[in-house]
Design brief:
The protein is an alpha+beta fold. The chain is 18% helix and 43% strand. The strands form 18 sheets. It has a five-stranded antiparallel β-sheet. A five-stranded antiparallel β-sheet has the order 2-31-60-59-58. The chain has a five-stranded mixed β-sheet with strand order 7-11-10-9-8. The termini are far apart. 36% of the residues are buried.
């Protein structure tokens, strides 16, 4: 090997004398929070839900881990806010620097007018206020009083006289029910509104705090801290510290100051500096997850996810260590460990995490692995001889493994192969496919010319495993090869390790972690089992856990409980780039882009419970127990989650029963569920934070969608009654109509009999018989027989037709012809002529008309029109189709006309024809029973007012075919 003396090496002797690595609690930032709240932070407060409030120079803000919310003032004189507290009724209160006190309601800050008016009248600065046993206790510069904010009542407790000057601060001992008030002259103890003790001080003891049974105080001039008036802290030299406040969090007492953060140590009764490299610390609070928040005057807010999670840092060259992006971690047999970086450096740490060596390869390239063997430090960028302190730069691949015969298995960007551990000559036992390797005087036995990443040698099976870019291959002792597949598909391995049972754990880049035995995949761990991501980076085994570093988180698989646990969530590592892990001396080390983090394994066994609740948005429903909504009303449900450790990288699962059968997923940034136009019924929303590694968070809310008015019982009852009434009315109407129709039918039947009577009236029969008798007497037997035949056939036709409502038109024409022939023969008038004409388009055999309708009209034409006519007498009966649905029958005579016939009938004292009345009544009845009406029109044909040409009767029948 050729040494490269240009490489910068810090040896352990030099480091021990000049550089000491320290532990530092790991601080994180929420970039979103500090970006949106970019001003001085004076105060912080965590409410009973875990919501973080911040009093800043620009007002009051809150933060839930996802969203920063500013609160507006209804009216105010200044924006700077401090003294944030929560009253017993859940309201958040604060004051500004203009002596105004506000309470938060519906995302707006309102003044308590009664209290503010009282403070204004005192013309004194408001120093502090606290909520104690349902009352508000307030301290002005010259008065101490309590305020019942529910009753708006103010009671003075104690006022200073002119000699006592002014108040500075106060605190309360709930166990003894005592108040402690710091003044310019001393310390006053009050109980039951009476002074029970008054102690003189130097006038500069201005901050007091009761911690357990002890009373702590701070001298603001000397920065001295006393406990029960005994000095426990004094700044070193002339370094004056401005202390801002005491903050008691989870039974721990903190002091914030211009010089940073201090903590009381009860074990040695001292105040110790808490090293977070942050000055101007104004407050520290603890949320419900156990996280700590630290605020500052000019650097924003910082987040401590776990007080036991430490950052390895170099005290004299802090940026050298903490600013590195660490790429790999590995330990040696002495329980020391090495850390490679992304810019070509290697750091060595001893058993106490002290930095003992720095190797700078000067390549400025990522150290992909570090491997200590035979007093040499082998890295992906070269070889460092620990004896001679010489470094040889050469690319040694992406991973390395040592076999049993003095060879290394190397995976590189373009091949995988075996070379001698001396980095000289050819590898032991394998000399079949040799090529020169790098700038070293050595050869490598090429296994395969393909990009490779993972290497492992099994000392149990004496086999070589290589993870290529296109699959996982295994080689036996004579380099016979085969591919290991999972579900008939290739495996892209990125890391491998063998356990004590000779099983192979394989981290893949797309399929989670696979478990192989005897070169067969027997199990897998994926997101279905709770793994944070199927794209993994590294796999390690310690005790009964398989540690899995994924693309997004750090998990472990518990081999006893057979479940995946997310450690990254517990440690608040979300958002960091995690590159490698190391389990050493019961510590977990994590290589990140922000430095090396470490924590005791025992401190990981602390699950936490983020705040989670579901509620219905809208003022009318916030406090309702039995939630009821109107039909078609939109339902808006808010998922209230405060989960800081997730850094906003979480989601919700929810179901709306009975609609959803499977879980629905929604990201944390969208915490509202909106349901529209739900049908009436009972519903239940079940929701949870989608994280298997926290305690159960399932919450439920039930609500009811009211039925629309048309589905309610009273509307159904009214509607039922209405329909019953309609049915009754319809029934009664149907009965009435049926009865009426029946009556009409009976009347029609009667009218048919009447029509029959009219056609068989005695006068006609008598006249016919007289005519027959006359013919017989005159010995005209042939005519008499002919006349008798026609008469008898007419009577038979009339009797047959009387039994029918409708007859064929041809039958009606034939009957009319018989009747007219009889009348003509009886009159023996040669001047009487008639015609019966049917349009060519009509088929008389197919068309039907009501029976016994036409004959009475023809009779009237003959008796009343033609009988009184002298000269030529004409009767025309025409049948024609007026339109496709109307048959028109016209009966026309050239008689004396309607007017003269009426006058003649009047003179001879005759009345209107019985047959005409009967027919009119019958037609009226038929029209009432039929949808199609029979219409009759009588026209008096005249040339002028005195001279008549006859009468025209037009009768329109609806066409009815025989088939009907």
């Amino acid at each position: 090997m050729k040494p490269n003396h240009s490489i910068f090496i810090l040896l352990s002797v030099f480091i021990v004398n000049s550089i000491i690595a320290q532990e530092k609690v790991f601080l994180r930032e929420f970039p979103k929070l500090n970006r949106e709240v970019n001003q001085s932070i004076y105060d912080m407060y965590v409410d009973d839900k875990g919501l973080l409030f911040l009093g800043t120079s620009l007002g009051l803000f809150s933060f839930n881990g996802v969203e920063v919310k500013p609160y507006s003032f209804k009216s105010n004189l200044s924006f700077s806010v401090d003294n944030i507290l929560q009253s017993d009724d859940g309201r958040v209160w604060c004051k500004n620097f203009s002596n105004e006190i506000f309470y938060l309601e519906r995302d707006t800050l309102y003044k308590d007018q009664a209290l503010n008016n009282y403070v204004l009248t005192k013309n004194s600065y408001l120093l502090d206020f606290k909520f104690i046993d349902g009352m508000t206790y307030l301290l002005l510069e010259n008065q101490f009083f309590k305020y019942d904010y529910k009753k708006k009542e103010i009671t003075e407790i104690y006022s200073l006289n002119s000699e006592e000057k002014i108040f500075h601060s106060f605190d309360y001992n709930s166990k003894l029910s005592e108040f402690y008030l710091s003044t310019s002259d001393g310390l006053i103890t009050l109980k039951d509104n009476q002074i029970i003790q008054k102690a003189e001080t130097d006038g500069k003891t201005r901050i007091v705090h009761r911690y357990g049974e002890d009373l702590f105080s701070i001298n603001t001039k000397t920065s001295e801290v006393k406990k029960n008036n005994q000095l426990i802290f004094t700044p070193k030299g002339d370094n004056r510290i401005v202390f801002f406040r005491f903050s008691e969090q989870n039974s721990e007492l903190w002091l914030t100051s211009s010089a940073g953060l201090f903590k009381y140590n009860p074990e040695n009764n001292s105040i110790e500096k808490f090293d977070i490299h942050l000055t101007g610390v104004t407050d520290i609070v603890t949320d419900l997850e156990g996280n700590h928040w630290v605020s500052s005057l000019d650097k924003g807010v910082f987040f401590i996810p776990n007080m036991n999670l430490k950052l390895i840092e170099n005290s004299s060259e802090a940026n050298l260590l903490s600013s590195q992006n660490y790429s790999t971690l590995i330990s040696n047999l002495k329980n020391e460990f090495y850390a490679g970086t992304s810019n070509g450096k290697v750091f060595k740490f001893d058993i106490n995490n002290k930095l003992s060596m720095v190797l700078d390869t000067k390549t400025n390239l990522e150290i992909e692995y570090v491997f200590e063997d035979d007093n040499r430090l082998i890295t992906s960028r070269g070889i460092f001889d620990l004896d001679s302190n010489q470094f040889t730069e050469s690319y040694i691949g992406k991973s390395i493994a040592k076999d049993n015969v003095g060879n290394y298995l190397i995976s590189t960007y373009n091949l995988a192969g075996i070379l001698n551990t001396d980095f000289s000559g050819s590898p032991n036992q394998f000399t079949t496919n040799l090529i020169d390797f790098g700038n070293l005087n050595t050869q490598i036995n090429v296994l395969r010319n393909k990009r490779a990443r993972a290497s492992l040698f099994s000392h149990h099976s004496n086999q070589y495993y290589v993870g290529y870019s296109d699959g996982l291959y295994v080689y036996d002792g004579v380099l016979n090869t085969k591919e290991i597949k999972y579900n008939q598909k290739e495996i892209i391995a990125v890391s491998m390790i063998e356990d004590v049972e000779n099983q192979l754990w394989i981290a893949t880049n797309r399929k989670g972690v696979l478990l192989a035995k005897n070169d067969q995949i027997i199990d897998s761990i994926s997101t279905k089992d709770g793994l944070s991501n199927n794209k993994t980076k590294s796999v390690k085994i310690h005790d009964q856990r398989v540690w899995i570093l994924t693309e997004t988180n750090l998990d472990y698989y518990d081999l006893v409980l057979n479940k995946v646990v997310s450690i990254g969530d517990r440690l608040g590592l979300n958002g960091l780039i995690l590159n490698d892990i190391l389990i050493l001396n019961e510590y977990l080390y994590v290589a990140t882009n922000k430095g090396i983090l470490y924590i005791k394994l025992i401190d990981l066994e602390k699950p936490f419970q983020p705040y989670f609740n579901i509620s219905v948005t809208g003022e009318n429903y916030r406090t309702a127990e039995n939630l009821m909504f109107n039909y078609n009303e939109s339902i808006n449900i808010q998922l209230e989650a405060i989960y800081y450790k997730a850094f906003g990288n979480f989601s919700f699962n929810y179901k709306l029963k009975p609609i959803h059968k499977e879980w629905q997923t929604q990201k944390a940034q969208n915490n509202e569920l909106n349901f529209y136009t739900l049908p009436a019924g009972n519903y239940e929303v079940i929701a949870e934070i989608n994280d298997k590694n926290i305690l159960p968070t399932e919450q439920r809310i039930q609500f009811q969608i009211n039925k629309p008015f048309w589905q309610k019982w009273w509307f159904t009852a009214i509607l039922t009654l209405f329909f019953l009434l309609i049915i009754v009315l319809i029934y009664k109407f149907a009965v009435y109509r049926t009865q009426k129709r029946q009556n009409l039918k009976e009347e029609l039947a009667t009218s048919q009999l009447t029509a029959l009577r009219s056609q068989m009236n005695p006068h006609f029969i008598f006249n016919v018989l007289n005519s027959i008798q006359g013919l017989m007497y005159s010995n005209q037997k042939g005519k008499a027989n002919d006349y008798m035949g026609k008469f008898s056939e007419l009577m038979r036709n009339i009797l047959d037709n009387s039994e029918k409502r409708y007859i064929a038109l041809e039958d009606e024409i034939y009957t009319l012809k018989l009747y007219i022939e009889l009348e003509k023969s009886r009159f023996e008038d040669k001047n009487f002529r008639y015609s019966l004409l049917v349009d060519k388009g009509l088929d008389p055999s197919e068309i039907q008309i009501p029976s016994m309708i036409l004959q009475p009209f023809v009779e009237n034409a003959i008796k009343h029109g033609l009988m009184h006519k002298r000269g030529q007498k004409l009767l025309e009966v025409n049948f024609r189709q007026k339109n496709p649905s109307i048959l028109s029958v016209e009966i026309k005579d050239n008689g004396v006309g309607i007017k003269l016939a009426s006058e003649i009938n009047e003179k001879i004292k005759k009345h209107k024809s019985f047959a005409t009345n009967a027919i009119n009544k019958r037609i009226s009845l038929m029209n009432k029973l039929s949808e199609s009406l029979i219409s009759i029109k009588v026209t008096d044909l005249t040339t002028d007012k005195t001279h008549s040409l006859g009468t025209l009767i037009s009768i329109d029948f609806p066409i009815r075919h025989k088939s009907l």
